[in-house]
Amino acid sequence: MNQETGIAILAPGLLGGSLALAARKRFPLTPIRVWARRAEAVEEVRQRIPSAIGCESIAECMQGVSLAILCMPVQHMPAAAQQIAAAAVRPDLLVTDVGSVKGSVVAALEPILFAKGITFIGSHPMAGSHTTGMANARADLFQHAACLLTPDEKSPPAALERLRAFWASLGCRVLEMSPAQHDHHVARISHLPHVMAALTTLAALKNDTSPIPCAAGGFRDTTRVAAGDPSMWTGILHDNRHEVLAALQDASSHLRELIEIIENDDLTRLQSLLAEAKQLRDLVPPPTAA
Amino acid sequence: MNQETGIAILAPGLLGGSLALAARKRFPLTPIRVWARRAEAVEEVRQRIPSAIGCESIAECMQGVSLAILCMPVQHMPAAAQQIAAAAVRPDLLVTDVGSVKGSVVAALEPILFAKGITFIGSHPMAGSHTTGMANARADLFQHAACLLTPDEKSPPAALERLRAFWASLGCRVLEMSPAQHDHHVARISHLPHVMAALTTLAALKNDTSPIPCAAGGFRDTTRVAAGDPSMWTGILHDNRHEVLAALQDASSHLRELIEIIENDDLTRLQSLLAEAKQLRDLVPPPTAA
Question: What is the structure's pLDDT at A84?
Fold first, then answer.
């Protein structure tokens, strides 16, 4: 059962828009309030979800809601939190976000909101794609996705339980970890692959695009996320740069090793490197079985 | 219309098995002869294609066929070509292969077969997956795939036309290029992504597999091909090592540049690197539109 009196979604892009669709489907009677910087973005949501309540300000969007979800790029979240802190809100308001970095987000938002007695707990649903915007939003985006919650010692257990129930009701597998552990994990499993997809694309095509007609599923899959929004990813990589750097330095040392192996035409070591990678990759369950 | 009197498929794994299924579907009346090193592999084909003719030797497999397709790992192709050269074959026999490297394959196979008056032209259907074996074979594997033919000055135009018609009839987009150009293109568009997927997997998970439960579509897609067969890929990377090395050195210099950008927290350059990768990736058409 949904315990929320109303859900506010701030900045409905791909994730926020999908969240609005999923929440509307799952909780047909709960008010869904939407705010976006651009009025056209709110209008786009209202075309797909006529019952959604468009709001002209963040303060207006907070009216009567017990759950507010920040869906803008991470660098714009502190300003939004300031406006929530300045608004009249319900005493049980729980604020969360969907940002891809948690250490910097929690450190920035918690003090702003806690100072006004508002609870903040970070969330990171591992959903999305290389596309953006409400036009690509889907009600089933969160089905089977991992959602990483990053409570800390200040998080009230009841609020954490509500947040857990909310994401689970949208079909997520909910995991809990500290913000620091989150940033380590996603640097390896999300930010690193993103950057490697970009580097693979550059190394494949920057000097000469003539191999493009030969592309098959291997190239398409390996580089798909390189089509993601450069500005959004700049913000993510900046916020998590220490963990990302460590992952890239590991990638660099594996790459140097591989170049040396191929230079020496050392087939035994080449096969064992590929076999080790396969063994690790085989540990990753398919999406629905995860 | 199929002009072939019979089609021989040597070593029906994922590609050869899919080829047998596709040819059976497309040419219901053409004899399909199959040879494999292991008798069980032939049996597996005959369970899915009862009309396929299992053969105990390569010589037996050549009886009456006008098209023979080598589907074993590239390092085993010269030995198979020797056996074809030693067999009694039709004067119009055309031999091709499905190997992922063409310079070394054409250089090895052409002299063996031409010495006996047998035509060889290399093929490389850009199809397949990280799975292997007849169990994963599919009749539609070649639908919309690029198939790269690598004729040279010795290739008879009529044989090239037959080969082109054969692959087109299975649904391939047929492209022609020299063996050297092929090896350059696939180093960038296939071999590099394969190696980068393996390196991403190692950098993500070798020290610590605990991020695995957080994996989403980005990691799954970027690293999918790292689950491919290490022994087959060792052969491919060995055969094409000069082109692969050049591609890896480009990847290495892009990686060094990116590490420096992140160390300096240079957001302008970071965003422009990501934007350049996105611009290139956006040039790659989706599979069916290619």
Answer: 98
Whole-structure pTM value:
0.91
CA torsion sign for B178, B180, B183, B186 is negative
The reply to whether residue A273 touches residue B198, judged by beta carbons under 8 angstroms, is yes
A131 has a pLDDT exceeding 90: no
SS3 A70: strand
A240 closest CA partner among A104, A53, A64, A39: A104
In Å, how far is B256's CA from the nearest CA of chain A? 8
Exposure b/e, A156-172, CB count within 10 A at least 16 = b? eeebbebbbebbeebbb
Structure letter (DSSP) for residue B187: I
Would you identify the CATH topology of the domain B182-289?
A: 6-phosphogluconate dehydrogenase C-terminal fold (1.10.3660)
**Cβ contacts (< 8 Å) between B171 and chain A: which residues?**
none
8 Å CB contact of B230 and A271: yes
Of the candidates B72, B69, B82, B86, which has an alpha carbon nearest to the alpha carbon of residue B8? B69
Which two three-digit tokens encode residue A93?
Answer: 């308001």
Kindly report, as residue ranges, where domains of CATH 3.40.50.720 are found in chain B: 7-177
For residue A41, pLDDT beyond 80: yes
pLDDT at position A289, please?
58
Q: In B129-139, which positions are buried (b, 16+ CB within 10 angstroms) versus exposed (e)?
A: bbebebeebeb
Which CATH superfamily includes the segment(s) A7-177? NAD(P)-binding Rossmann-like Domain (3.40.50.720)
Phi, psi of A85 (to 5 degrees): -60, -30
ipTM associated with this complex:
0.91
pLDDT at residue A1, rounded to an integer: 56
* Percent above pLDDT 90 for chain B: 93
Q: Is A209 on the interface with B (CB under 8 A)?
A: yes
Q: pLDDT at position A85, please?
A: 98
Q: What is the pLDDT of residue B290?
A: 53
